Amino acid sequence: MEEVHIIRITPEQFGYEDRGIVKWLGMLLSDHTEALKQERKKNQLREIKAKVEMTEVEKANILYKAFTTGSPVLIQANIVTNGNYYKDLACKVSGYADNQIYFILKDKREASCTLEEIRNVEFMNLLDWYDKRE
């Protein structure tokens, strides 16, 4: 039986000097988490103005056209929190059943709502949906 030799190579053999990189990564993670919290807070504080409230027929017509053509839409929910509306939701209509409208969001998540929960809906620019603007 042939004898096997195991050769162990460490980063120090190549001149790497340990500077506590593990601790540095922990600091980076906490800094990144804090930056995300501040960004989220900044987005929540942005005042979003109310768009014109559409009739159910207007909303249904646009949603139907978006569904049949596969076009993305921007939806403003008819919900007010702390005196502000939520940011517009970029999505595509994926279907309708039992008084619920189903959407696929830009980040590939799924959502649903009723027609009454929508304040305004408008077609979205395809360049914005596919992030093709430079």
Protein topology:
Blueprint: H1 21-45, H2 56-69, E1 72-77, E2 80-81, E3 84-85, E4 89-97, E5 100-105, E6 110-113, E7 118-123, H3 126-129
Antiparallel strand pairs: 1-4, 1-7, 2-3, 4-5, 5-6
Question: What does it look like?
Answer:
The protein has two domains: 15-45; 56-129, SH3 type barrels (Roll), CATH 2.30.30.520. The protein is α+β, with helices and mostly antiparallel strands. The strands form two sheets. The protein has a five-stranded antiparallel β-sheet. A two-stranded antiparallel sheet has the order 2-3. The chain contains three helices and seven strands. The longest helix has 25 residues, at 21-45. The protein has helices spanning 21-45, 56-69, 126-129; strands spanning 72-77, 80-81, 84-85, 89-97, 100-105, 110-113, 118-123. The termini are far apart. It is elongated. A hairpin with a 2-residue loop joins strand 2 (80-81) and strand 3 (84-85).
